[in-house]
Amino acid sequence: MTRYRTIATLFTFAATAIALQTSPGLAFSPEAQQMCSDDAMRLCSSEIPDIPRITACMVRNKSHVSPGCRAVMDREAAAAATSRKREAAAQ
């Protein structure tokens, strides 16, 4: 089970970063890892280790993730959008 927990944690980092379209320099927060790991295992374990499929699964199942995970995803998506706006304005 520890191996699956590790895979889920890695998946959560990668999938959320891709799904939220964050820039490569932004790290996935420890809070998001903590809040979303169980959801990733519960909803998308059949997709592990294929990151694009896991990402699609999490996006597809966003309405089924826990409230804590959804809040973190929404908050990080808003932060990423703000960062993209700043980058666009600077150019």
Report on the architecture of this protein.
- With about 90 residues, the protein is an all-alpha fold.
- The chain has four helices and no strands.
- Helix 1 (about 1-20) crosses helix 2 (about 30-45).
Bin the helical content.
over 70%
What distance lies between the first and last C-alpha atoms, to the nearest angstrom? 47 Å
Q: Which whole number gives the mean pLDDT?
A: 76
Low-pLDDT runs: 19-27
Question: How would you summarize what this structure contains?
Answer:
The chain has 91 residues and is mostly helical. It has helices at 2-19, 30-44, 51-60, 67-90. It is elongated.
Describe this protein with a few key phrases:
4 helices; 91 residues; single chain; mainly alpha; 0% strand
What order do the helices and strands come in, and which of them pair?
Blueprint: H1 2-19, H2 30-44, H3 51-60, H4 67-90
Helix pairs in contact: 1-2, 1-3, 2-4
